[in-house]
Amino acid sequence: MTSTDVPDIRIPADLLPADGRFGSGPSKVRPEAVAALAEVSATWMGTSHRQRPVKAVVASVRRGLAELLHLPEGYEVLLGNGGATVFWDAATFGLISARSQHLAFGEFSSKFAAAVAGAPHLDPPDVIESAAGTHPEARPTEGVDLYAFTHNETSTGVAMALARPEGVAAEEALVAVDATSAAGALLFDPSEVDVYYLAPQKALASDGGLWLAACSPAAIERIERIRSSSRWCPPSLDLGIALDNSRADQTYNTPALATLFLLDQQLRWLNDNGGLEWAAARCAKSASVLYGWAEDSEHAAPFVADPAKRSSVVGTIDLAASVDAGTVSAVLRANGIVDTDAYRKLGRNQVRIGTFPAVDPDDVAALCESVDFVVAALAV
């Protein structure tokens, strides 16, 4: 839809949210964090990531994430460049010994499975799929040494509880969880997980291009054991090298300094306000507003049928066939409310709303009122 095709509908100012950013990633970055970056830009941007000022922030990020996630004794936070997509490739070299099992219930959970399927040094993965809007369950399987879960499927708005497959100990098989849109917003028991990995451009309100992974002692042992084997790995994907550099509070190659700074600011903000419990409650409040509105609406309904599987950080809302979701999102954008479009490959007539911790629940309520106003105006 071009700008000339967008209906000229003006939402009254008193209905508009104070901040119109509802993207599911990259998500809203708090203005206070951007202002803090601007204040130090002359001494921070364009400086060496091998020197003390940057290494101190990396150390703060590692401590802050460990505090936020309530990591048990012995867990370590690793980081490297490239985001979660690159981490999938690193995991095919440095985490999976021979065979993995993947729960595939959306675009991103399926991508990790596809990356493993193409790895010539690994056995074909065991992939368990379910329809969009649901999630499958893991099944203990002989020969599987890594179970790959997704805490929150960003493409569909489905969240799942995290638990080791019944009867499977960490010494037998690792549990690796893609937490990119969940970390810092959804509660979980870290003892049920060996690798909780993420990119920081969603709940952690930073920019992309970085991966972080909270690793259990069993995961660290796996990384070191594979590193000492004869398996070849490109240095940039070598989790052993990432481990060494992370312990020195740096990355193997040059990181984006703005990303690190904004990430540190968000972790401090979350921890200072009450940590993961506070953040999860704030997201749950926003989600309650969004889903409650959709359930009461004549022109909207939650896409995920089971309330227990509905994400509190990414809400997918189907619109009635008489309402074109693309047009609604375009009108919202023209009024300063951005990134409400459905995930492109899901192919549904819906809006997708990010309700991460940085998003004010009052703004979610205003968004719902704004959608109602646009739908009514389109019907005239």
Describe the structure in brief.
The protein has 380 residues and is of the alpha/beta class. The protein folds into two domains: 3-29 and 275-379, Aspartate Aminotransferase, domain 1 (Alpha-Beta Complex), CATH 3.90.1150.10; 32-272, Aspartate Aminotransferase, domain 2 (3-Layer(aba) Sandwich).
Write the layout of secondary structure elements.
Blueprint: H1 31-44, H2 52-69, E1 76-81, H3 83-94, E2 100-104, H4 107-117, E3 126-129, E4 146-150, E5 152-153, E6 158-159, E7 174-178, E8 195-198, E9 210-215, H5 217-227, H6 239-247, H7 257-272, H8 275-296, E10 300-302, E11 314-319, H9 325-334, E12 350-354, H10 361-379
Parallel strand pairs: 2-3, 2-4, 4-7, 7-8
Antiparallel strand pairs: 1-9, 5-6, 8-9, 10-11, 11-12
For the record, give the distance between the C-alpha atoms at the N and C termini, rounded to a whole number: 20 Å
CATH architecture label name of the largest domain: 3-Layer(aba) Sandwich
Q: What best-fitting shape do the alpha-carbon axes yield?
A: globular
What's the total number of strands?
12
Give the low-pLDDT segments.
none
Summarize the helix and strand pattern as letters.
HHEHEHEEEEEEEHHHHEEHEH
Query: Per DSSP, what share of the residues sits in E-state strands of 2 or more residues?
Result: 5-15%
Q: What is the residue-mean pLDDT, rounded to a whole number?
A: 96
What CATH first level of the largest domain would be assigned? Alpha Beta
What is the number of helices?
Answer: 10
Model description:
The protein has helices at residues 31-44, 52-69, 83-94, 107-117, 217-227, 239-247, 257-272, 275-296, 325-334, 361-379, and strands spanning 76-81, 100-104, 126-129, 146-150, 152-153, 158-159, 174-178, 195-198, 210-215, 300-302, 314-319, 350-354. The mean pLDDT is 96. Strand 5 and strand 6 (158-159) form a beta hairpin. The protein folds into 2 domains: 3-29 and 275-379, Aspartate Aminotransferase, domain 1, CATH 3.90.1150; 32-272, Type I PLP-dependent aspartate aminotransferase-like (Major domain) (Aspartate Aminotransferase, domain 2), CATH 3.40.640.10. The strands form 3 sheets. A 7-stranded mixed β-sheet has the order 1-9-8-7-4-2-3, sandwiched between helices. The protein is an alpha/beta fold. It is globular.
